Amino acid sequence: MGRVYARKDTEKIVIDFTYKGQRCREQTALPDTKANRKKVEKLLERIEAEITLGVFDYARYFPNSPRAEKFNKLDMGQGDTPLFEAFANTWFDEMLIQWRKSHQSKIRMTLDKYLFPRFGEEEVGRITKASILEFRASLAKVTTRTQTPLSASRINHIMYALRMILDEAANRYNFSSPYQGIKSLKIPRSSVEPFSLDEVQLILNNVRPDFRNYYTVRFFTGMRTGEIDGLQWDAVDFERRQIAIKRSLVMGEIEQTKNDSSYRIIDMNDLTFKALKEQQEVTGDGDFVFCTRSGTPLSHNNVTKRVWYPLLRYLRLPKRTPYQTRHTAATLWLASGENPEWIARQMGHTTTEMLFRVYSRYVPNLTRQDGSAFERLLAQNF
Question: In this structure, is the dihedral angle defined by the CA atoms of residues 316, 318, 320 and 322, taken in order, positive or negative?
Answer without folding.
Answer: negative
